[in-house]
Write a structure and sequence with these properties.
This protein is mainly beta and about 350 residues long. It has no helices and 26 strands.
């Protein structure tokens, strides 16, 4: 934080997430050791021998997110003049970059890209990485695929390829290219004859493992080019229970933090029994509360296809009202409090 110097101020006080600090004569304050994707509130006032000035407006600032995860399950499908890439949404990604043939770079916001205007029978290689304001992920492994040859037939392409994945299996399916046609599929480097089946089931796999597939129409004389190239992973084990790691309470607000969960794309928060869904931060501020009131929280993580168990239920109370008196050491002063509608006061 940096602000303009006030000529009447001998020093400055800054309130950071409810705590007031003496910043001396410096007009710069550095808040360190923060967690990514957490929101913090600040306000500043000047102080001199005559007293304290008015607080500035409140500045609410959110730290940058974690670096985005690498995209998973990149799939490429080709016809004569275009190649379509798709992949799974990457955690913390706001956009994606596609490297084409090692030279050009294209940025897209959605997890798909269509490369069109291509010549039949040409090879193209792609890599994908995710991006956000913090930085970029590692590149995916290269995917190389050829557009189909211009044979004058519309039935040389394989279309509408889909992959259904579980923790221990990958099932591929596609539309038939033509009547009575047969297919070959290369699975992790092993060539298999799939006959006329348009479904291939790869079972007995380990959770979270990657597998490479290529599919083409079978030709007994000269092998056709691969029509589809995919790198697909099985689902990981379900995410672990979310852990609320820290909290901070003032007399009118409560902020909680939780540990990030690998593979999470968002979080659900239950606040006093009310569900708040699809929160991207790993912190939550509950404000406009009454002093001395108790509130309950629990959190769970959402991955692309699963949710974690709820965290342990945490009950936190706002603090009671505090009062600050400015005086010199040894100085006597009178202090009067007026309370209205006091209940259950012990003494």
């Amino acid at each position: 934080m940096e602000w303009e110097r006030n000529e009447k101020a001998d020093r400055y006080e800054i309130e950071v997430d409810g705590f007031i600090y003496n910043n001396g004569i410096s007009t710069i304050y550095l808040h360190e050791g923060l967690v990514p994707l957490t929101t913090h509130k600040y306000r500043i006032r000047g102080v001199n021998s005559g007293g304290t000035g008015e607080w500035s407006q409140i500045f609410s600032v959110t730290t940058y997110p974690y670096e985005p995860h690498i995209p998973e399950n990149v799939m490429a499908a080709a016809d004569k003049t275009e190649i379509t890439l798709t992949w799974y949404i990457a955690s913390y990604a706001t956009s994606y970059e596609i490297e084409i043939d090692g030279t050009s770079l294209v940025e897209v916001e959605e997890p798909s890209y269509k490369h069109d205007g291509l010549q039949p029978g040409t090879n193209h290689t792609y890599r994908v990485r995710s991006k956000n304001i913090t930085g970029v992920s590692e590149w995916t492994s290269p995917v190389t695929i050829s557009t189909s040859l211009d044979t004058g037939s519309a039935e040389t392409a394989i279309t509408n390829v889909a992959a259904v994945v579980t923790t221990d299996s990958i099932v591929l399916s596609w539309d038939a290219g033509a009547f009575f046609c047969e297919y070959e599929i290369e699975v992790d480097g092993l060539l298999l004859d799939n006959g006329s089946n348009t479904v291939f089931a790869h079972t007995g796999l380990a959770p979270g493992t990657y597998h490479d597939y290529k599919i083409r129409l079978k030709n007994t004389e000269i092998p056709n080019d691969w029509c589809v190239v995919l790198t697909v992973s099985t689902l990981p084990e379900p995410p672990d229970r979310t852990i609320i790691s820290d909290y901070y309470a003032t007399n009118n607000s409560i902020q909680i933090w939780w540990e990030p969960v690998d593979g999470a794309v968002s979080y659900d928060i239950e606040v006093d029994g009310v569900l708040l869904a699809n929160v991207s931060d790993i912190t939550y501020i509950h404000d406009a509360l009454l002093p001395g009131t108790a509130h309950q929280y629990r959190v769970r993580a959402r991955t692309l296809l699963d949710v974690s168990p709820w965290s342990e239920l945490l009950e936190i109370a706002t603090s009671t009202t505090t009062f600050e008196v400015q005086c010199a050491a040894g100085e006597e002063f009178d202090y009067t409090l007026l309370a209205i509608n006091v209940q259950d006061f012990p003494g």
